[in-house]
Amino acid sequence: MDRTGEHALLYVRACLILALWVLPVAQLSAAEEVATKEQQGKPRKILFDTDPGGDDVFALLLLQSLARQGYAEIVAVTTVGGNVGSRQTFSNASSILALGGFENVEVGRSATVDPPRADAAHIHGSDGVGNLSRSLPAPPRRFGEARSAADIIVEKLRAQPGEITLVAVGPLTNLAAAEEQHPGILSRAKEVVIMGGAFRRKGNITSQSEFNIHCDPEAAQTVFSSSDNVVVLPLDVTMRITFTGEHAEAVRKAASNREIADFIVKLTDFMIQTTKSYRETEGVAGFHVHDAATLAYLFYPETLLLRRGEVRVETEGKWTRGKTVMDERHGAKTKANAWVALRVDGSVLLSILTEDLKLLCGAK
User: 290 an active-site residue?
Assistant: First the structure.
């Protein structure tokens, strides 16, 4: 055999070896790709506990957009007194769901109808939605006929253990009531994702505590003691997410559904005006969409950095009641119960939020 023939034989052998080596890998990669696509295509089941509230409204609209896009399944929405009283938060959540076309989602009433220990009507308006409630669709559900939030949480988590993510963006009263009613129930959630607390910065209701935790610190401590699957989005990151009039106008310009878009613009204008007096937006004419950070963690995690730790809540201090505490000393941690977000790419997250709101409003 001449040299040309030898080269040809070597080439054929090399091709055969390469084919035998590549083929199984290609088949495995294809199988993995299919599995990945199937996993990505499965909506994340969300039970959303809220006290609307201007920033709650934006989070609930964002959740509806994600559900409309097929990324989320809204299992139920439960309401709690916080930014305003429990009857009003129930009405607001029902109307916002109807505004987005999700009026068939069950809405639960607060586990307690007692007035909240503190409210934020001076920021969110007497009705919690910038005094715009009369412009919203009539609530399709009645408070007196609704099931208790605690009952809904217990039922859903018992029926689908490990499948439902519990997102809480108000005082943690309902979650604690569910845990007390059925001990261990919160550990059946896939995750418990909450907006609350402040770790490396000052509070927003007292110098030490954040509003949601301050409203019911005993409930918050119950939640943190219930399991080790808690994720916390505190003021450390949410104060870096400032929604402006320009963001709202961008949504309106792209919208075909002007009812939702006009509401977003009007609510934004109201929230910007009430936020000004608190001097917390670093000179930016906007307001903090705190609660949207919970959904950022679930759907856009690349925008956040988190730290694992043991979180506890001060329930007795005269000056520190409601303060969230995490031991950051360099010692062995055997009781870590939470992931805490400490950094956020706010500009990227705001761009994402704006685009998702455009989609909800039927971007042209």
Answer: yes
- Whether the bond between 245 and the residue before it is cis, its omega within 30 degrees of 0, is no
> Which tokens sit at 276?
């000004």
pLDDT by residue (tens digit) across 27-75? Answer: 434 334 434 444 456 999 999 999 999 999 999 999 999 999 999 999 9
For residue range 311-339, list pLDDT tens digits in order. Answer: 999 999 999 999 999 999 999 989 999 99
Helix axes 54-68, 86-99, angle to 10 degrees: 30
Q: What is the mean pLDDT of the chain?
A: 88
Query: What's the CA gap between 96 and 90, in Å, rounded?
Result: 10
Rounded CA separation 321/224 (Å): 16
The pTM is what?
Answer: 0.87
Q: What topology does CATH give the domain 42-242+289-360?
A: Inosine-uridine Nucleoside N-ribohydrolase; Chain A (3.90.245)
Catalytic residue among 124, 247, 288, 290: 290
Contact 125, 132 (CB under 8 A): yes
Domains of the chain: which residue ranges? 42-242+289-360
The Cα 327–Cα 349 span in angstroms is 28
Tally Cβ neighbours within 10 Å of residue 234.
Answer: 27
